[in-house]
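for the record, two folds in this file. i put them one after another cuz i was lazy. first one right below, seq on top, structure tokens after. the second one comes after a little note so u can tell where it starts
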Amino acid sequence: MIIEDDLLACRVYQKRLEKAGYEVDFALDGNEGLAKSHNGYDLVILDIALPKLDGWQVLGRLKNHDGTRHTPVIICTVLDGDHYRQKAKELDADGFVNKFHDDLFSEVERIWGGALEEIFNRA
């Protein structure tokens, strides 16, 4: 599940993840993301700067809900800096990457294992 308000970014991530064999869904704002998150996704890729509910609020609610508490969440954002990374860690995010680098796909591989990086590099 990708929660990201930039439709182009959603489509890029979706294409690369589907090429690796994953089923991908996305939401374009925090409220929609929270509503969909209870469908039992294996991983959430979450932007911070979202309309309606920001990513911090979404992350907090995901990690405080019994049904999504153990779902890995990777923060993927243009916001960078130690204070953002620290806040993500405090809210129990499982990863933090810059939206404009391929680190996202390395983080997915770190969490799920396998040979995803090789597949992504060919995409």
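(here's the note) second protein begins now
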Amino acid sequence: MTSDALTDPARIVNVLLVEDDPGDVLMTREAFEEHLHNRLDVVTDGDAAIAYLRHEPPYVDHPRPDLILLDLNLPRVDGRQVLAEVKNDEKLRSIPVIVLTTSQAEEDVLRSYQLHANAYVTKPVDFDGFIEAIKQIDHFFVSVVKLPGS
């Protein structure tokens, strides 16, 4: 991010949350509304995520996300397949993808990094821990690192 973007409160980062658990969606929305000032769009399955990223209906007018928060265990097309699609698509691969999941399985961690995830975060089970994890992800990927196109 440029120094202007860091000091410019009007700089909005577009975040796409791909999550099917309504409770996790609600907590993430709450973290964004109360603590963060970025745009959050939500899709609840892998098919919708791919349609969103490719600007297919009904997502034609949605912005390209600057960051993707991706659950692995999704209906229809799972998160691993979405991650593979993103990282194999020349137009999408530069978007950072943070795997945000309940799985602590070593094979999921390894497979996610093999598919070029930018980070793997296990969801905390308690509300405060979850909010803090979202805030830390936002702080790191919005304030610390330079995102493509910023």
